[in-house]
User: Fold these one by one.
Assistant:
Number 1:
Amino acid sequence: MASPYVTTVPVPPGCLVVGPAITGVKVYLVQRALHLVGHRERFDAATTSAVRVFQAARHLRVTGLVDATTWTALGTGYPFCIDRYTSQPVVRAGASASTRIEAMIAYATRRVGVQYLWGGAGPIGFDCSGLALQAMYAGGRVVRGLNTDLHVGADFRTTHFLYASGLPHVPLSQRRRGDLVFYGSPITHMAIYLGNGQIVEAVRPVIRIGSLYGDGLSAQPYVVRPFP
């Protein structure tokens, strides 16, 4: 049987035009450059209007969308293709499940204190499922049909996709270090289980170590095991 693990994670096309279709890091950087506060990485009507005003003032084509030309004019401080960021496996091809789990957890815990961004999948901010996705890459696990271009979609929910992805489900009572815990019904949040009742999770304002039941959210009765 072929190994379910990879030694290289494909880098998505990325370089997405910034507009209502996406959320995440690029939307955050556009809103920061335009001094828009409180929009929580949603490219809403106010953001569209501010982009149009900026484009008109700079004699750019007025579209309300941020392409590479408008991005450069905004001076975000980051490349337009920042959304191509993809964590790569840090383990050898024949690594054990426990080694892969530790690689995943190391990736996530090294980012404790990094800001939460809705739709974020790195490198400067993450949401709960964006953090889990990149951490799984570090352990060599790719989920078929999922990448960061999909993750940033405004109408896409990576939490739901991961839960229904076909990865093994195990009763919450049998959880172990490295399992993915899901919260809410329908699912609204997820985290990586560390053991001893602790999780690493991305919640606003920053990634943190927390309690399995710390915020009173109801955990799904099954966890997902990315490295069985």
Note: The CA atoms of residues 97 and 227 lie 5 Å apart.
Number 2:
Amino acid sequence: MLTHDTMVEGVHWLPSQDMADVAFKLVAVNLSDLAAKGAEPLGVLLGYMLGEDDARFVGGLAEALDAFRVPLLGGDTVSGGPACAFGLTAIGRATHRPVPSRGGARPGHGLWLSGPVGAAMLGFEALRDGTEADSGAYRRPRPLLAEGQALAPLVSAIMDVSDGLLLDTARIAQASGMTIDIDVALVPIAVPEERRAEALRWGDDYQLLFTLPAGSKPPVPAHRIGTVLPRGVAPLLLDGAPPAPDDRLGYSHGA
């Protein structure tokens, strides 16, 4: 099983960030994709652009590889200029077959979320504004590898929340040919209540978003936040109503 993510300066991290954190996050977000397949990481391949803070990047990379017990198998280095970009390919082994996908949700299944959203948004703002608030959720997310492996035999659909809860829920609904109705008040958030709408759209939280058959309970801590319905007028409903046509549900790479 293979997955690849690229991170670009000014898009995925602030130019002023510690490159050790950038390296750590690059590993973590790729492993989060494996977590959403219930996979066990076997190693990574790095595409690295040489820059001014190579030592800090290498230090953060070593921290991440040690933290998640993943070896660096190889890769390539290139020279370049601003903006800087890095790519990483993660290799994993499926722990359950069939490997879970986004496309198995069925009417009556519940929609579940492994934890709160919004912490990464607050972390980004703390870094951007130079405050003393905790920025760890944005700088060094944690892939939920053990949780993904525990869920793999049970879920009907699963993915990680990288581009925003609403957008990623819509992706599960579209892949499954269903409509998913989110009960907005049930979504756990890590922000003040008045910022709930932002937290549901911001992304970068890397929680696991999954569906389970009716009556099933997840083997890991999680919150039921919605229900899968037969396909209706829209793939996503919020409290029974489709979002406005101009509602930006999350981060779109093509926007």
Note: Strands lie at 2-8, 39-49, 72-78, 85-94, 110-113, 157-160, 178-182, 208-212, 223-230, 236-238.
Number 3:
Amino acid sequence: MRILVASPRGFCAGVNMAIAALECALELYPLPIYVFHEIVHNKHVVDGFRARGVIFIDEVEEVPHGGTLVYSAHGVSPQVRQRAVARALNVVDATCPLVTKVHSEAIRFARQGHEMVLIGHAGHDEVIGTIGEAPGRIRLVQDVEDVDSLELDETPSLAYLSQTTLSVDDADAIIGRLRQRFPDIVAPPSADICYASQNRQEAVREIASEVDAVFVIGSQNSSNSRRLAEIAREQGVAAYLIDDTSDIDPAWLVGVEAIGVTAGASAPERLVEECLDYFQTRFGGVIESRALRTEDMHFQLPVELRRAAQDNAQSAAGA
């Protein structure tokens, strides 16, 4: 069996930063440490932190007064921030800077008097946080049909934003329809879909033409991982989104001579290695790397952690 391994794959800069931030918080602050929603959308990452005493919550009020709360990579709404202040929480903001960029655009568009259309998936943490920046000013669209059914009382000054983890092709189709319906719609200064999502989508499209099936390592609630599987299917090959090797059904591999392997932006590389070992052991697989480009993006730890680490170092030096 040929095993084509896509690159780039796995952790992006935003996920690396968020996970490193939570690791650092565990070193600097006493337990329990709370995280608003999942730090990243991956079952193995979340379960690993949970085993170390991290508590994942859905409501700020679950954190004791004065406790430590980490915001996930997906960002939060201003309402969540206000509730954290009201409870005097020690907050660590691990929001991906590329998500923060979209929030900033929403705030700026609202100040400029624009109504907004947000292209994204209903219920996703990132979408909830972005809509919270301008309540009542943002309409969510998930597909071209939603654009066609948009009803505006007047013809307002309109702008659009996008969730960072969308399929580039899907987003382009929706943007194209928005421009047809609203020729004067204002675009963000630069594309909202993040570099990592685009790179992983291009890489999986590259290998899909050479294989009979694609295995995407990632959790079901990971938007960017689901997009990778969808893109592979659009190329006419079977695609499976799996958390790990335990999800693999051997029947999927009957008659398969070549497979592609990739991982969503929140999936650890060790899960990729375990899958490659599985395919090599059972099918005598020969691994071939398909590197589309190199990523060198890096985000600093949240400022709260850098200050806390500096204070600890100064205290230790003084002692």
Note: The chain has three domains: 2-11+195-291, 13-96, 98-181.
Number 4:
Amino acid sequence: MPEPRSERRVGIALVIAAAVAWSTAPFFTRLLPFDPWTILFWRGLFGGGMIMVFLTVTQGARGVRDLVTMGKGGWLVAVLSATGMMTFIPALQMTDVTNVAVLIATQPFVAAAMAYLWFREAARWQTMLASFVALCGIALIVSNAHAAGDIRGMGLACVMVLAISAMTVAMRRYRETSMVAAAALSNFLGSLVSLPFAHDITHLGGTDIFVLAMFGFCQVALGLTFYALGSRLLPSGEASLVATLETPLMPFWVWLAFSEVPSLRALAGGALVMGAVVADIVSNRDVDA
């Protein structure tokens, strides 16, 4: 059953905002010469703290209660989100940014399949066709990855895709649960798991703390909050497809800041992903209210 037009537009806008926020991860990662667990620990604390501030300001005591009285749906989302975050940063450090970015474009297929198996939510054929075009972009770029580091990094990226796809479906399934509170909890869980493995946890200067705070606020807090709100308003496959706009933006920020020029394959694959997302949005512009 199609979503109301206004609700769908809000959902698309929120997920696009989430994709822009998430795409800054490689930029911040390049600025931090620490092991991934140290980055995950501090980023999780700052990200979770920022989300809790948002909840407190917008909902008062109710926001804090939502975190404490989290139901099974919220815990499921939090665990899946934490899993995705804890595999994402190591993947970025083990392989090229582009290899990680394009694997994210498989999420529409995975999320649509999970949504159908879980509660029989069928994806639009236009969305699946657009997802296939995005997948062609993946095949174009990652076909050049052969090094051992690439394989390990891409393996972690695949785990991330499975976790985030399942998280998207869970957000859709448990719409009555406060997913913003679940996003905060996922950050704190990530910090807790990372703590025993973080070797550089006390070796931070003032600039490092500032970068980590911005990492937590811009990439995590804004990204997860926007996605938690927007993905509940869209079919799981479409939410994941729109989020793949993160893919071409990730190499863009790295190029802009560090002059790391994307390959022709990356540019071509990114163009396919962006074209697929735009085509899907346009094809559904006449959805019934």
Note: The radius of gyration is 18 Å.
